[in-house]
Amino acid sequence: MGDVFKEQIVKRKGTFKDIAIKACLCILAFLLGFAALLFINPMLGVLVWFAAGFGARFLMSFLNVEYEYIFTSGELDIDIIYDQSRRKRVFSGHVKQFEIMAHIDDKNHEGAFNGAQEVRDYSGGVKGLDTYAFLTVHDGKKVKIIFDPNEKMLKAISGVLTRRNLHLRAGVILMP
Fold this sequence. Notes:
By secondary structure, the protein is of the alpha+beta class. It has helices spanning 16-39, 42-61, 110-114, 151-158, and strands spanning 5-11, 65-72, 75-82, 86-94, 100-103, 118-121, 132-138, 141-147, 166-167.
């Protein structure tokens, strides 16, 4: 059997909360710089203003998020990418360890997903036809992970999952 390798990048949609945080950071940087100009030496005030601007930009970069799903021969890795430059692995596990995988709106498995101790959302932020969840044990906890695999990724995952724990819909692969 040959190795299967699929990867996909999903950009998280910006929310109103993200916009509000960015606006607050800009206003705070402006006010900090303005106060430094008024109450401290003007030359030092300009430096504080620039430092506050760079600090605000650095903090805003954590709001530009993408997720990369990497499926390699049964292993699913999920990385978070901040501002297209900093990467961190947030999940790694074998698909055979998933207790169940189903569409996020699947009411038949709601009870199983409610048993999760923790919910981690690694999706694009908008629930749609491509939004799925799986239940697994990660770091000693039962975790529900939400993600947005495309059709190729679903087919690769479904090739490894057993009929017992695979429940897909949306015309991709249907198994009872």
